[in-house]
Write a structure and sequence with these properties.
mainly alpha, oxidoreductase activity, acting on a sulfur group of donors, disulfide as acceptor, 11% strand, 55% helix, 10 helices, Glutaredoxin, 2 domains
Length: 244
């Protein structure tokens, strides 16, 4: 009986140590076994060895982009890394776009006012993209349009007017959304998503991989996103990975 109590006590202590170690890295528990590096950081290497075989059938890779519509670095990442990679690897990756970045919001009555880093044109660009995401709904249908807007050398509204016909985007509906209470609340939700980041963002573009952000992830994403997605995906790699 005493031996059994001792084993239970040691097991409890070990579990607490693992929990504390993982918590210290600000990494949610569902990601502890995502890679060997994260498992090592969180102190759960042995536990994850038992779980990792089942993760060979894991879901597609999730890339999150927290950005601003007139941020030069964001535009470059979108047009040279994110969109080209999505075109090649859409079968194994999903993209979450959050156009808000370093904007500050203030509630005035039941309405939100936004102060954007690059001025009112950027605020309009952000909410145009937010409303497009909400109205079009399907990533494969709205990401080419947003890529076109981000790659244009004119104001976001001018870019939207130029790009919408090319990708069958209902621009009148989108622009009506930007001035509506609905659009205002949609943009507030982008603020909520951005403010919920752990760790908090301190620059843009801010890139997450399966919900995680590290300096290493940011560096790999901005230099060769295709390779990062291919290396992360645990299943059979598509042919495009051979060129990454």
């Amino acid at each position: 009986m005493e031996r059994r109590r001792l084993v239970l006590l040691l097991s409890t202590v070990a579990s607490l140590q693992v929990s504390n170690s993982a918590s210290s890295g600000n990494i949610p528990s569902r990601f502890w076994c995502f890679s060997e590096e994260i498992a090592l950081q969180c102190g759960v290497t042995e536990q994850c060895k038992k779980e990792r075989p089942a993760q060979k059938n894991a879901a597609i890779v999730n890339i999150g982009l927290y950005y601003e519509s007139m941020c030069g670095g964001c535009q470059e990442f979108f047009t040279t890394q994110l969109y080209p990679t999505f075109q090649k690897l859409s079968s194994i990756m999903n993209v979450t776009l959050v156009p808000y970045g370093n904007t500050e919001e203030t509630k005035v009555g039941d309405h939100w006012e936004f102060d954007c880093q690059h001025g009112p044109d950027e605020c309009l660009g952000d909410i145009i993209e937010t409303c497009t995401i909400a109205i079009v709904k399907t990533l494969a249908n709205y990401i080419p349009f947003i890529n076109c807007v981000e790659g244009s050398k004119v104001t976001p509204k001018e870019a939207a007017e130029k790009c919408a016909p090319q990708f069958s985007i209902p621009l009148d509906q989108v622009l009506n959304c930007t001035t509506s209470d609905y659009g205002n609340q949609l943009q507030h939700q982008m603020a909520v998503l951005t403010d919920s980041l752990v760790p908090q963002h301190n620059y843009v573009p801010w890139i997450t991989l399966n919900g995680l952000h590290t300096d290493d992830i940011e560096e790999k994403a901005t230099t060769n996103l295709l390779k990062l997605v291919c290396d992360t995906y645990p299943g059979e790699k598509p042919p495009a990975c051979n060129s990454g």
